[in-house]
Amino acid sequence: MTNRLVFASMNDAVLQAKRHLPHMVFDFIEGAAGLETAAGENKAAFANIKLQPRILQDVATRSLNKNLLGESYALPFGISPMGMCNLIHPRADRLIADAGCKRNIPVCLSTAGSTSIEGFSHWAGDNAERTAWFQLYVQTPEIAMDMVERAEKSGYHTLVLTLDVPQVSRRVRDIRNGFEIPFRIGPRQFIDFAMHPTWSISRLLNGIPRPINFELSGDGKPFDRNAQRTGADLEFLRQLRERWKCNLIIKGVMSADDALLLQSEGVDGIWVSNHGGRQLDAAPPAISALPKIRTALGPDYPIIFDSGIRSGEDVIKAIALGADFVMLGRAILFALGAKGARGLDCLIDNFSADINTVLAQIGCASVEELDASILVRSAK
Ligand SMILES: Cc1cc2nc3c(=O)[nH]c(=O)nc-3n(C[C@H](O)[C@H](O)[C@H](O)COP(=O)(O)O)c2cc1C
Q: Whose CA is nearest to atom 15 of ligand 1?
């Protein structure tokens, strides 16, 4: 592992990405809604959760395997859907799909990704059913259902419907930087790019990515980032449940009442997330919603978690608080922005090593055994 080490910590990766990427691309990753309070509190909340050190336990052999939705994954974490990853690195989507296969972890293509639904599952090859997931945004039910059909034909078994973006929030950094999708290059962006020649040359050679899936579905119009995504109402959810027979997961759940409704509508799992603080700035830290939702849904209902995860220790905390599985968002993009393929590899190695070490410290031999008993009482 040492020869692949390109950064030792998340903070190092962030600093490297900041140096390498144009200002507006880095801000697109790191930025959040409004005053960015929710994004900051997502991370701060993890620092306040404490784990109980234990001794004299049998931890000589430790397992990071985790089961989810009938599949056995090699690690307890995967990769969240993120639009326009190829802005950060020209082969980001490809590297993510490959990481899914190589590491046996789930990785999720976003509707707003710049790789086609078909292309992403093709890269996953024989692993597509297990490791390649597809995330759906609904601008109109017709376009969404067309994408669902494409996902079905492409062999996906897990569909993630994101519901916490009825309208994209005001992200101040993007507004200030003139960041738009599809990408526009004015004088301000030109200067920013000129100051980051390595990134800019690779974009010139590989082209500017664009969210291609909207052009391939429905009426073929390009993606409008600011258009409403309110087409996903309860009626749509019921139609989708009827239509999609494989795993259906709902992403962006922060309320126990919403979670109970989704459970009663027959979805296969929910994804607790506040979109990394990129939507409602006044939202509570996502991790604070997790235990309440777990209690409401009962011990066996599949729950995925993201928002604010920056270390393997955070992964362990989220599982202890009720998650079956944890997904990484910005952490992945910082790693890709820092060092491309080597960065992504290093990040997954660092998280895995962190989890392995922490398991030993807390006297646990397997991530499957983690529960609230590993938390220090006052911090629960
Ligand atoms: C640049 C970027 C783009 C994103 N695009 C999407 C998207 O297209 N669909 C979606 O469901 N979530 C999207 N998200 C949210 C992530 O899936 C995830 O919920 C969030 O990043 C988790 O928080 P974290 O970054 O603090 O780990 C995006 C996040 C980022 C940082």
A: 275
